[in-house]
Amino acid sequence: xxxxxxxxxxxxxSITAWSQTVRVLDQSSQEPISGVTxxxxxxxxxxxxxxxxxxxLDAFSNDELIYFQSSLTGISSIRKSQxxxxxxxxxxxxxIEYLNEVVISASKFEQNxxxxxxxxxxVTAEDIKFMNPQTSADLLEATGNVYIQKSQxxxxxxxxxxxxxxxxxxxxxxxxxxxxxxxxxxxxxxxSIDPFTIQTTEVTLGAGSIVYGSDAIGGVMSFYTKKPMLxxxxxxxxxxxxxxxxxTANNEKTINAQFNIGLKKxxxxxxxxxxxxxxxxxxxxxxxxxxxxxxxxTENGMDxxxxxxxxxxxxxxxxxxxxxxxxxxxxxGTDLSMDFGLYYSTTSDYARYDRLIRYNGDNLWxxxxxxxxxxxxxxxxxxxxxxxxxxxxxxxQGTLAYQNFQESRVDRNFQSEIxxxxxxxxxxxxxxxxxxxxxxxxxxxxxxxxxxxxxxxSNGSEENIMTNVExxxxxxxxxxxxxxxxxxxxxxxxKPSDGLVLQSGVRYNHIVSHSDFTENNQYLNxxxxxxEINSGALTGTLGLTYNPNETVQFKANASxxxxxxxxxxxxxxxxxxxxxVVVPNSNLKPEYAYGGDxxxxxxxxxxxxxxSAIFYTYLDNALIRRDFSIDGQTQIEYDGELSNVQAVQNAxxxxxxxxxxxxxxNFTDQFHIVSKYNFIRGTENENGEKLPVRHVAxxxxxxxxxxxxDKLKMDAYAQYNAEFTNEELAPSEREKDFIYALDENGNxxxxxxxxxxxxxxxxxxxxxxxxxxxxxxxxxxxxxxxSGIASAGRNFIVSLNYSL
Length: 804
Description:
Blueprint: H1 2-18, E1 21-26, E2 37-39, E3 46-48, E4 54-56, E5 65-70, E6 74-79, H2 80-85, E7 89-92, E8 102-103, E9 111-112, E10 119-124, H3 125-131, H4 136-142, E11 147-149, E12 157-160, E13 163-164, E14 168-172, E15 175-176, E16 198-205, H5 209-212, E17 219-225, E18 237-247, E19 252-262, E20 266-277, E21 280-281, E22 294-299, E23 302-307, E24 313-314, E25 319-333, E26 336-347, E27 350-351, H6 353-356, E28 359-360, E29 363-364, E30 366-371, E31 375-385, E32 395-413, E33 418-438, E34 443-464, E35 470-473, E36 482-497, E37 500-516, H7 521-524, E38 530-546, E39 552-563, H8 567-571, E40 574-577, E41 580-582, E42 591-604, E43 608-627, E44 635-638, E45 641-666, E46 671-686, E47 689-692, E48 700-709, E49 712-721, H9 731-734, E50 741-742, E51 748-749, E52 753-763, E53 768-775, E54 795-803
Parallel strand pairs: 1-7, 14-17, 41-45
Antiparallel strand pairs: 1-4, 2-3, 2-5, 5-6, 8-9, 10-16, 11-12, 12-13, 14-15, 16-17, 18-19, 18-54, 19-20, 20-25, 21-24, 22-23, 25-26, 26-31, 27-30, 28-29, 30-32, 31-32, 32-33, 33-34, 34-35, 34-36, 36-37, 37-38, 38-39, 39-42, 40-41, 42-43, 43-45, 44-45, 45-46, 46-47, 46-48, 48-49, 49-52, 50-51, ...
């Protein structure tokens, strides 16, 4: 028996000694790294890691120095004997500078970020896992370059370089999410994108109209979801994982599950996320104006105001959300692939909190004001050809997509029997064709075409809550409206030397839309029954990137951008604020933006990195909401109230400018500090009067002190926001005094604030990790600018991740 045991141990030792399979892992995430090249000093022996990050070292001698190299980690070397002594695991660390060398959003094909004149911020799946955001709006806010406004818990409206909502573009896997009813007011659509599904997010700071067309004035937020992973061999590649998260400030309970199955040429990825949020608790220390002392309840059809047992709890703000994603990938060869995706997101009803804290005299104005479920569905098909012998292109990408958006609004005034309902749906179809052609070693050509068609369905009704009788009423949009865009673009990249890149491009867009107001005119009596837009827009860009050495990088970019009027501009009917109603306007033209930015990046031996960017944008023919009249009438009755008439008009111009700063100091490979600061200002020019621009945010930024070693990572960080005085608020913001704090003169203003936070990660193994975060440690009560809801008070978050 002893002999058999000794023989077995001897055989086991021999197998271990002679068959050395090593696993290569990312030092920070503990995730396997595929595609790492493994070789010896004279490069006579070559291997590469598989999808599990594994590679055999049988060909290498025991004392041989082995090199590990990838585009993200650079080159590392270690002796085979040391690898064996450390358990056959090799940890590689991502390079400090340019953690993601390749970006996609600038041309829809992979390019080296150093050669792109636009400033692009990257967020990886590993970054997202460590950030632990509740929604994709929170993810964007964590970048330090995107400001987030919230009217309610179920929301998050991005602001980039002084522009927001329908002057920013959102794409998911290359498909534009912006539709014909994206509004100038605050938008919540970004929360439909599940952070658990995102592989990388690229935020382009500044105009992106050449590649993306209308709406890309202030920036582009490009979300790329995870791709199914293939086996590339006859055996199955199966991988599964799950996460669970709990947060105290809103009693969040989130679960996520992912499952991947890979065959030789086919692969499938399934993702499911469910989140449940209770009412949000604000902080203890801050303006008393933000407290929620009372709210409305309805019993037996009667409204009454009750005292809030805990004024820190914002009643009602809770909701729940479910996200589903199913993807399939087929690789016919190394250069030809097809991707299929189905995405679905829906919420429960959720209150528009800022409308529920308005007062009408001594009583709250609204008994009810909530959004119905915000639902989004997308199905897309993408085909990519990465090499071709065609004289027309070397790379090709085609995308077909269908999206369905559904949203609704329900409101009822305090002690009113009439409940107002508005329901909207958009069917959006799109096709994109994008090409890349290498003309020579110095010239590269990008070109493409796009077609988008939107069909809008909208209806309105009034319901008597006592009798349950429902009758038709004016709809928010003209039912059956359509909006379509056809475009073509081309861009040329010229690289006269290794350190100098010039890129220029031009795009032509033609917009056609039609709206019929016949049905709504029985309520509004507009002087027209139809409205049509038939106009074109030509935009261009010219950029330069100069890298004279490893220390200095300089970028300059000049561009034009535009936004075509959509159905929300042309045909919307809604109460913009108490006592005002927005009506349709058929006489609208596109607005244009002319701007530029300069970026200087200094890198002193990877020890100290400094990045500064200045930018300026002039917005002409700006589409803004202003006082209006219908047949000479400046007031009409809407939802039972005499209201001032307003409409979207080409009535102003605006100047927006700013400065973005980043500084990073790397004390060691494990310890660094990084800060970002954004300074933005703007004036709106109307009839010779200069006014603050509504969506220009106060100065904001963050500072992170990060330390990581082995299995532990810690990030102590502060987020801060400057004050906006009453004079610095736009006129439309001053009128919303119910969402702001009051200064010593009783005027609304936005106070400054700072929060201190700590997040940690501990990697128990390459499969199991835990994330702990303590936000707003000092329990501050604050609101981000223009937000109706106060941000979370002290908040403890715990998240557990496990993968198989």
